[in-house]
Amino acid sequence: MAITLNCELNQLKPVPILTKNILDLEQDKWDLIVLGDMFYDEDLADSLHRWLKDCFWTHKTRVLIGDPGRPQFRGHSIQHQLHKVVEYSLPEPTRQENNGLTTSAVWDFQP
């Protein structure tokens, strides 16, 4: 909903938003994939990593990943293929809800 509203407010053509599991489907060609806080489970992280590599190498898709640095993300092999774009401080209420996580970063995936 936020993306749709942002597009409307900025007079942009709405971007496609997918809510189904697309990791096992044939890949469409996208210029950009943006995902956030998705590396919380090892099996999901491994599947995402494979899928993102395929998108990158098959279609030259740019991939941006937002993550607050959960242990599953920090310890995943994808770390060797990421370049930090920006880091943000989390607001205090968010810090309290997230067991001491204090920042979140956006990473550019470059396998």
Automatic annotation (TrEMBL):
Gene3D superfamilies: Vaccinia Virus protein VP39
Keyword annotations of the record: Methyltransferase, Transferase
GO molecular function, one term: protein-lysine N-methyltransferase activity
SUPFAM superfamilies the record matches: S-adenosyl-L-methionine-dependent methyltransferases (SSF53335)
Recorded GO CC terms: mitochondrial matrix
One GO-annotated biological process of the protein: methylation
PANTHER family tied to this protein: ELECTRON TRANSFER FLAVOPROTEIN BETA SUBUNIT LYSINE METHYLTRANSFERASE
Family classification: Belongs to the methyltransferase superfamily. ETFBKMT family.
Protein name: Electron transfer flavoprotein beta subunit lysine methyltransferase
Species: Myotis davidii
Lineage per the UniProt record: Eukaryota, Metazoa, Chordata, Craniata, Vertebrata
